[in-house]
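Here is one chain, start to finish.
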Amino acid sequence: MRLSRKEHEAIKKYFREVFHNGQIYLFGSRVDDEKRGGDIDLYIDATNKKNLVHKKLDFLVKLKKEIGDQKIDVVFNKGFNRLIDKVAMKEGVLL
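Its structure:
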């Protein structure tokens, strides 16, 4: 997993602060230690699905203030059986 300790801890901290409950996974190229670069792809399964857009923005602002301006993609589990849901759950790492 290609996240620094600071990035890893900040993601978990702000996930708990903003979403309170649920699970967050890292997926995509940052899961593979052999790859280089890439954005931070996060898959969120939030227990409370109200105001997700507002919560996403709040989470990203807080996270970027802590770890710097990086490309971060956030995908929510919305209860659909989409390909991205399958990929994130199969290849993702629970943070």
